[in-house]
Amino acid sequence: MDLMRHSSTFLLPTIPTDGQAYALVVLNQRLPRFTPLLWKHARIRLCADGGANRLYDEMPQLLSCEDASDVRSRYKPDIIKGDMDSIRNEVLDFYTNLGTKVVNESHDQDTTDLHKCITYIRDFTPDLEKSNLCILVAGALGGRFDHESGNLNVLYRFSTMRIVLLSDDCLIHLLPKTHHHEIYIQPSIEGPHCGLIPIGMPSQRTTTTGLQWDLTDTEMKFGGLVSTSNIVKGEKITVQSDSDLLWTISIKK
């Protein structure tokens, strides 16, 4: 079984030159305070429908020492995509005049706006090497639970792609059962609280190292044991499971 390595170095001011490329998707929830940092690291930036409103309204608040109009002009998304039922007309006009490409998929009501953006990145960005691409999703958590559930479902629907859901408080990504996993902790910016959550199906056997309460061929399922409120002990966590798991870890403020 192949090894998959994970690290939250995208939350650091300077990222390693290891060939990892990033894309950023902004959703219609409060922007994490570190969104300007994610923007800097990303090679392509998309807003999912009303995420453009958040970018327009909240990025100047995150950079309050700068002129708001300059911030809005500088932080221009490459793409706005979705069913376009949330974006305000003045925001759409503003970014369109700056040259942002708008992809209206109002005909598709069977997928979420995040799903639409991930599909665009997968199918229409030939310059990005997908094997080394990680998609960062800002504003993915908080607000309505059905929206959060839809975002989690995207992780499973695109299980071969690296996608990280981010809020001010934590991050979440999928650990596919097809791989062994090594998670390299950045102790200056994340932890110590973490969790491993089996969503979709139970895990009959999960084994970990590096946690306060490690698992050894442990069964996890809803209605039984779920490894929440665990704690990272070191800077390397290993996970092996017979089921896809969600990894989550707190982000320090």
Would you mind describing this structure in some detail?
- By secondary structure, this protein is an alpha/beta fold.
- 24% of the residues lie in helices and 33% in strands.
- The protein contains six helices and 15 strands.
- Strands 5-4-3-2-6-7-8-15-10-13 form a ten-stranded mixed β-sheet, sandwiched between helices. A five-stranded mixed β-sheet has the order 1-9-14-11-12, with no helix packed on it.
- Helix 2 crosses helix 3 (68-74).
- The longest helix is centred in the middle third of the chain and has 13 residues, at 145-157.
- The radius of gyration is 18 Å and the shape is globular.
- The two termini are 36 Å apart.
